Amino acid sequence: MFTSLHHLIDLEWMHEAYRLTRKDGAVGVDGVTAAQYEGGLEENLRDLLDRIRSGRYVAPPVRRHYLPKSDGTKRPLGIPTLEDKVAQRAVVMLLEPIYETDFLPCSYGFRPGRSAHDALRALRNGFMEQGLRWVIDVDIAKYFDTIDHTHLRCFLDQRVTDGVVRRMIDKWLKAGVLESGILQRPIRGTPQGGVVSPLLANIYLHHVLDQWFTQVVQGRLKGRSLLVRYADDAVLAFDDFRDGQRVLAVLGKRMGRYALKLHPQKTGFIDFRFKRPRGRHPLATGTSFSFLGFTQVWGRSRQNKPVVQQVTAKDRFARALRAASDWCRANRHRGFREQHQYLSRVIQGHCAYFGITGNDRRIRWFHHQVIRIWMKWLRRRGRQGHLTWPRLRKMLKRYPLPPARIVHQYAVS
């Protein structure tokens, strides 16, 4: 247990926290930009450090913004002030090394040196090497908005009791949300958008799910099992059908004990066998599932062997194309080179995440569809109405778009 930590935060620490803070994000409720804050950076950081140490720091409310989700709903996102981001980063720099020694290998989200692709690789290896065939696709309803503060404080008490650090965390939990000029102070949840929120969310599920499954559940199961979690997205896999059913029966009760709730429509029991006698199992809700933007399905390798393929999920694919189309429509008045630069970044970014072995067909199709969308909106630019495919191909030979390529080669297909 760490009882004294805040003495490690000095001016040099604050400068490093500021360096690691994103500067191009939206401004918070105070309207202060990074350029304005840098005008008196040394003085501002000294004053911030003094307020943190003395307890005079007042956490400002976050500005609420909504992001559209694939199911038509909106995800709430909090936008803290720049100074609050710096303060949160300073505390995260203290806590992260402590909890990195506690977090289990099954956890991948928002941890240094770990990524979504590591989680996808671990899940695929579980299917291919351990013979896991029964899957619980876990979806926690409104997880970040329903984290119970009392339970979270109890979890923090087990490792960190430094008064200054804990007081800062409490201030962020109580800071509130400013939406349409109305200040709301929720009694649950963590401040989404802040850098401290992912760490607190990881700590919560580390105790609620990770430790419980690895230390309590796995020892009572008949066969092999696996947990892969990225933030609040988790997959439990088993090689024995009855093991999966037993865990599914108690998982909701376990979550309810800590004020969490499984999403009734999105949480399912998946029959993930390659060959299914008489079709899907009657107690299963599907034969494939999505995790971190990839649909997990069985396919055939070039040697005609059964392999697990991770392909771009249909909703993520459609959302990416819709975003490209919306931009082309809104910016069709811009010059060819400017549009070319933007679409090049779109393709590069898409391949950087979705470009994994076995997903080459979807990557090439995305590349093709982006060109078709671009052609469509170029033709609607008055003088460009006569643009033909041969002419566009000549333009693309002179200014080629980045090729569709596999970036993450970690599986044999």
Plain-language structure description:
There is one protein chain. With 413 residues, the chain is an alpha+beta fold. It has helices spanning 11-20, 34-38, 41-54, 82-100, 116-129, 143-146, 149-157, 163-174, 196-217, 241-257, 314-330, 336-354, 360-378, 389-398; strands spanning 62-68, 74-79, 134-139, 177-179, 182-184, 225-230, 233-238, 268-271, 289-291, 294-300, 306-312. The protein has a four-stranded mixed beta sheet with strand order 2-1-4-5, with no helix packed on it. A four-stranded antiparallel beta sheet has the order 6-7-3-8, with helices on both faces. Strand 4 (177-179) and strand 5 (182-184) form a beta hairpin. It starts with 10 loop residues before the first helix and ends in a 15-residue tail after the last helix. The mean pLDDT is 92.
What sort of overall outline do the alpha carbons produce when their principal axes are compared?
A: globular
Question: What is the β-strand count?
Answer: 11
Mean pLDDT: 92
Percentage of residues assigned to helices = 40-55%
Rg measurement, Å: 24 Å
Strand ordering within the main sheet: 2-1-4-5
H-E string = HHHEEHHEHHHEEHEEHEEEEHHHH
By helix and strand content, what is the structural category? alpha+beta
Number of helices: 14
